[in-house]
Automatic annotation (TrEMBL):
Residue ranges of domain HNH nuclease in the record: 366-418
Pfam families: DUF222 (PF02720)
Source taxon at top rank: Bacteria
Source species of the chain: Microbacterium lemovicicum
Xref: InterPro entries: DUF222, HNH_nuc
Protein name: HNH nuclease domain-containing protein
């Protein structure tokens, strides 16, 4: 007995009617901004519910294709080599999306008892509940579960479930600070923070594996060039990414040129990003023996910045973080980098930057690095622009006697800096720590909230919550 096909066909028909009506009436174009916000929000909620249906359906396909006997598998009955191929054919998605649906299904689908046939809890029940409530879609589920699962089996299942519950509360808008529901990118940051806080082994297992697999191979020269391949250690990759950012930052890549009569010339740089990164590496190799010759980043030579808690350094445990790299570093790696670099104390226990000030209009390189370590990136929640591409905003304008001091500077991307006065976000400093008040459409309570995406500060906050 088919219980779902008729209701699903009815939903499809309703969706077609809504879409055609919106097109015929030009509903989106005729909406004001408040109406359009409500419409996009409602469509997003529907999309998450559709994700839930599809994840559950794919989960059942996976279950029916797990039999040891290949001839008994659903995929074999339908002439497909695996679940991914079948899902691609049925849903018209890419191989990447088919894989993501399967990974999500493994976490949120209830298992079936081999003995009784009854349904048992999913691996992370709180994620399933949030999915069926329409709170989490595919992106949100993977943003939470993948960082937490990366620590298995070193972290107990109960600890995973507890951490997932805390992050799900952020997704529902019920987190400790009562912030509005978090998007997938912010949920991933929270989940990564908890994964690191729960993993007592620190970064050591990952580093040992990376050390074993590290490689860089130059292939045989061909008429088309020379192929290279390899796996870099996280700190090496972070340093290379820093150099790439300096070379291909929009402020470096585009230069205003003009014809003799003053008319502008369109930039002739039509290189792909991969080509630009190749050329950046060539420049770095050419000047590696020199200092101060690479293009500047934030007004100064590219510098790999590693942040670490002083107590972790003293105890030899915990993590260090390199800007430009999502993976944490070991304390040993931080010691090695510090051996040939400068060490600077940046923040105290409350997150306030230790006074590093200047009387100049432009923040100097020491201030910029300190602010980057405190803020992590653009302070507007959900923006995601990294520190290397951000500008520093005087919270109290310099023209109004605002000091060029770390207590008065925050990271903003070009867009949020340029249009801050127009888009409804407000920023203030509270004892040297940035706080943001969102516009009413994003946060109806319009409360001031402390913001950061700094992994060091987030890890500290997670440690405090655990005690």
């Amino acid at each position: 007995m088919d219980l779902l096909t008729a209701p699903l066909h009815s939903l499809q028909q309703q969706a077609r009617e809504v879409l055609r009506g919106a097109e015929d009436e030009r509903a989106f174009q005729r909406s004001n901004e408040s109406e359009l916000v409500r419409q996009v929000t409602a469509i997003g909620a529907l999309s998450r519910l559709v994700d839930a249906l599809l994840i559950d359906a794919v989960g059942e396909v996976v279950r029916r294709s797990e039999q040891p006997d290949r001839d008994e598998r659903m995929t074999t009955h339908l002439g497909c080599r695996d679940v991914s191929e079948l899902v691609q054919i049925l849903t018209r998605v890419s191989p990447q999306t088919a894989s993501r649906l399967q990974r999500a299904a493994q976490v949120v689908r209830p298992t079936v008892s081999d003995m009784t046939g009854e349904l048992l809890d999913a691996a992370l029940p709180c994620l399933r509940e949030a999915m069926t409530d329409g709170v989490l879609g595919l992106d949100g589920i993977l943003a939470i579960c993948e960082p937490l699962q990366s620590t298995a089996p070193r972290v107990p299942t109960d600890a995973h479930r507890e951490a997932a519950g805390i992050v799900v509360a952020e997704a529902r808008g019920e987190g400790p600070d009562g912030a509005p529901p978090a998007c997938a990118s912010l949920l991933k940051i929270h989940a990564q923070t908890w994964a690191l806080a729960l993993d007592q082994d620190g970064a050591e297992p990952s580093e040992r594996a990376a050390i074993r697999r590290r490689s860089f191979t130059i292939g045989v020269a061909t008429p088309s060039g020379v192929a290279v391949r390899g796996i870099l250690l996280p700190d090496v990759a972070a340093q290379l990414q820093t150099i790439f950012d300096a070379q291909i930052s929009p402020k470096v890549a585009f230069v205003d040129t003009h014809e003799a009569d003053g008319s502008p010339i369109a930039p002739l740089d039509d290189r792909s990003r991969a080509q630009k990164q190749h050329d950046a590496l060539a420049s770095a190799l050419d000047v590696a023996a020199s200092s101060g010759l690479l293009p500047t980043l934030g007004g100064h030579a590219p510098t790999l910045v590693v942040s670490v808690d002083a107590d972790d350094v003293a105890g030899g445990t915990g993590y260090a973080y390199a800007q430009g790299c999502d993976q944490p570093l070991t304390i040993a790696a931080a010691h090695h980098i510090a051996c040939h670099g400068a060490i600077q104390r940046v923040t105290n226990r409350d997150g306030r930057i230790v006074a590093i000030s200047t009387a100049e209009r432009v923040f100097n390189r020491h201030q910029r690095r300190a602010i980057a370590l405190r803020d992590g990136g653009c302070v507007i929640p959900g923006c995601g622009v990294p520190a290397a591409w951000c500008e520093i905003h005087h919270v109290l304008e310099h023209a109004n006697d605002g000091p060029t001091h770390t207590d008065n500077g925050v990271l903003l991307c070009w867009f949020h800096h340029r249009f801050l006065d127009r888009i409804g976000w407000r920023i203030r400093m509270n004892c040297g720590v940035p706080q943001v008040r969102a516009p009413g459409w994003f946060d109806p309570s319009m409360r001031w909230r402390t913001v950061t995406t700094s992994p060091t500060r987030l890890a500290g906050a997670a440690a405090v919550r655990r005690t």
